[in-house]
């Protein structure tokens, strides 16, 4: 589904990703862990198409297409979803209008008919229940004045509405208390299927207690330096990132 | 002969100059002031960024009282809800009573010439030109010199005028370049309530210049809402002066919407002349092409315990230019004043520009005042957020810009008018945001 080969990327002359290789297949959950500044969020941003970053080398194939050639909206149309670390507040745009526009633009991209008001409402009700989000939140301006937990829940709700093939969760656990993490993780787990995949980007192991990954990769200094199963995350939690750092001292 | 000479000649031809009981005195004074000051140039501090001199180098006709419009011509300009509303038509600046309809009880509309002589003469003589701005600014003096064609609107004490008053300014520029000078004096009596919505429409393709003045006097416990909606042809330009005098403890609420035209200068002056007055001023402007929008506002806190709240927002595209100049005066006497002002601008192209100047002049020492302004581009992160959800760049931009306008739209409290303006804005954003 996603195939990253030798990906190099940076921002303003600064090299951040220095040769990433990663394969994700349908049904899999991958976690990317790593210390601050290792390039985790850069990877998520490059995959979603944030224009600040420049890809200098390598390829990314997603669902049979050259991902790097696509605009952010085309990537979403192809089934890629990024849950933001810091969801943006947009005053004056109601969450419901926003999500309705998004759902129908994605459908248009896929050559499907736009949902009418009744069908949209039905889908929304279903996904609201699934992700434990409240109607009053959705009638407010997008993320405006939402608490940290509400913003993250809204991200998971949007993900549920758009039904992506690959969901990238960028530090979705940051700033959340344990109850909020549990709600968000439940939402994500309900959306897992054999056809879609999840890429979790996280600094801490605790999210992985709730969304159990099939594979864990450690990103350090722009490269994946270690890959393993969920036990690797536990080891990192116990020993910290220092042992990774000491194993990977640059010559 | 340039236009100003033509105007002066026209003035001398008018019969009522010597009519000292009616409007003659104020007209004569205004004419003298105009002769002394002339039309303001960009050397004038208040006109630094807005050049209107060129309108007076061209031939503009100041038309006769007769007009050639039929009800069918008017149909497309009528605002939603007109069936219940009071409708006042001004054709080329002159009030057309045969087209106008006054339905509400307690609302009286008369030619100013009549009101200056009948039972309203004390009110007219006391309040017409109350701002005396016509002695300080040539363009207002010009309007006042021709005040004989103006209108007097009277809202009776204690009357709640439930349905709005729609004011239509129609310029018939099918035959010639037009100079129109609508003039209105509104008196809102004690404990009365009234709402106005005003629009501007041009027929034909000739150029026009509208120099409109409205003065509104608001008595104790009265509430007045005023919505000025300006969406006109690019060959139509205007200077529109609104002067509100809150002479009793009262509440006013204005929204100024500027969507299209050649050059537009809005002067909004509000004097809070009694304790515990409240004034809310909102504005939104969307500019494109080579259009020019200038909003000059003055809030004069003359008495203690008053509150004013002002928010103007603008979006400028193409080569358009914008000016915001907001002055707040807090007089020495006006302790316990609360005054807030904000102006926010989004530039949508390399060629668009805006000059914004918030000004506070405070002479009292126990007040709460704030002002601020911003000029920026559409937020990249917001745009990326929407696009990452599959929304095209074009749609994402219009959603963001519409969102930017929403808090001003919400201030239009006549529902059909709010929808009308929202539709105009939505249409614009869909078609003109590249």
Would you kindly provide a written description of the structure presented here, covering whatever features stand out?
The complex is a heterodimer of chains A (251) and B (434). By secondary structure, chain A is of the alpha/beta class. Chain A has a single domain (2-247), classed as 3-Layer(aba) Sandwich (Rossmann fold). Chain A has 9 helices and 12 strands. Chain A has helices at residues 40-48, 72-78, 95-109, 117-131, 135-139, 148-162, 178-191, 230-239, 242-247; strands at 2-11, 14-24, 29-33, 54-62, 65-66, 80-83, 90-94, 141-142, 166-170, 197-202, 215-220, 223-228. In chain A, α2 packs across α3 (95-109) and α4 (117-131) packs across α6 (148-162). With 434 residues, chain B is of the alpha/beta class. In chain B, the strands form 2 sheets. In chain B, strands 2-1-5-8-10-12-14-16-18-20 form a 10-stranded mixed β-sheet, covered by helices on one side. In chain B, strands 3, 4, 6, 7, 9, 11, 13, 15, 17 and 19 form a 10-stranded mixed β-sheet that branches. In chain B, α2 (24-37) runs antiparallel to α6, α7 (380-387) packs across α8 (393-409) and α8 runs antiparallel to α9 (415-432). Chain B is globular, with a radius of gyration of 21 Å. The model of chain B has no long low-confidence stretch (mean pLDDT 92). Classes of the chains: A alpha/beta (251), B alpha/beta (434). The A-B interface holds A 48-51, 71-73, 75-77, 81-82, 84, 87-88, 90-93, 97-99, 101-102, 105-106, 109, 141, 158, 162 and B 379-382, 384-393, 395-396, 399-400, 402-407. Chain B: Pfam families: SUFBD_core (PF01458), SufBD_N (PF19295). Chain B: This is Fe-S cluster assembly protein SufD. Chain B: Residues 176-404 form the SUF system FeS cluster assembly SufBD core domain. Chain B: Belongs to the iron-sulfur cluster assembly SufBD family.
